């Protein structure tokens, strides 16, 4: 039993001492993706083609070995380098406590999956990996967000799932600085912080607005003061009584809607006329 323990221990030490380093380096994805870099997350190139040609590993590079991502800030790089030869590397710096205090290790590991999930050459849809997609999570190896505005470095590692030892790793990425949030009270909203072009454009727009208001005011004054009053249509005479247009026998017609109006004389009223012309053109005019 003791012999078996020493054999396992020696294999673990041998595996840790024989880590393979590939020359690939993680970086921000060149793809035109939205929010490639935020205040607490970043989208990296995927680990496709990183570990597919490795041999003599303690695990099968295609079906057994697992790809993990190491995210580190500040002293996390040196802390990981000191811990990477130890077994069960995934438990040494869990995410919930990785950045909680000054004594934290400042790094954490996230599992991506097997090598076959990241084929080489790269297949559409597998060319990137978003760090921080799990938000402010609480499990030891979740894909949590990074401290806001921090400067982080990343590396992909190949891990034997039997004892969680690192069998291969990539190079560290360059420093990637996340966006910092600005205090709204410290934002300068005065003219001193604006360019000359912005001031000129603002002045021109204000002038156009003032001119438009002036034109509207002039139009309103013109409508109120200079418009003509409506004149009522003058109706000649009354329509209470009128003659029908029977040329041979004209007769008056009384409109009942105007019975209360005073009557006006008609052609048949007993008023003496000086003369009239008969409607029958064959008869001469007579005088009454």
Automatic annotation (TrEMBL):
Stretches for region Disordered: 246-271
Keyword entries, A-Z: Membrane, Signal, Transmembrane, Transmembrane helix
Keyword Transmembrane helix in annotation: yes
Record-linked InterPro entries: Uroplakin-3
Gene Ontology CC entries for this record: membrane
Signal peptide: 1-18
Record-annotated membrane-spanning stretches: 196-224
Top-rank lineage group of the source organism: Eukaryota
Protein name (Swiss-Prot/TrEMBL): Uroplakin 3b
Source organism of this protein record: Salmo trutta
